[in-house]
Structure formats: structure tokens, C-alpha cells
Amino acid sequence: MSNQKPQKHTSDALALVEELTGKGQEMADLIEQERGNLDMARKIYELRAKANLSQAALARKVGTTQSVISRLEDADYDGHSLEMLRRIASALEKRVEIRFLPSRKLHHA
To answer: Which of 22, 28, 33, 105 measures 20 to 30 Å from 59, CA to CA?
Structure first.
């Protein structure tokens, strides 16, 4: 007989990330940054798709190339500039709004 407690398995993504990477602030900050990149890429894609524009068509309206739009829609890209976001928003008849929100922290399971 073993005195070890059975391991509890979870499918909670944040709990799994914590288990794999640790609970340090540096890792939490990195995850928050990546989440922001993903959110930005997803929003640009969604707005473009809702406007029924290809990447090339949006690029023409913005005055850039299709490859730049592709890069901006890539969750791994972290070079978003406010000026480019304003150009995209203008081309899509939108405006950019910036808000400062409390930081999301990893929740302990």
C-alpha cells in the first residue's frame, strides 16, 4: 500500500500551463503578452472577414502589402504599431480604442 495521493488530472488550460512552466511572474507576464498578440491578430482577421475583404484587398485600402496584413493576423507577431492599427481601423471604417485593464494572472487550480 502506498501513502501517495492519487494525482488529479485536469483539462484546465491555465492549470496545465502552470504545471508545465511554473508559477513565476516572468512566465505569467510572457503568457499575458502572447495572449495580447493572439487577441490582436484574431480581431484584425475577424474585422477583415466581416468586411468581406481578402488580405490583398485590405492591404490596398491600407496602403501596404498583403504580406504585412498576413503578418498582423499571425498570433506569433508582436510588432503591432498604433499607427498601423489606426490605418487598418480607418480602412474598415472603425476606430481604435485603447483601454488599460487589470492584468490577467494565472489562476491556481
So the answer is: 33
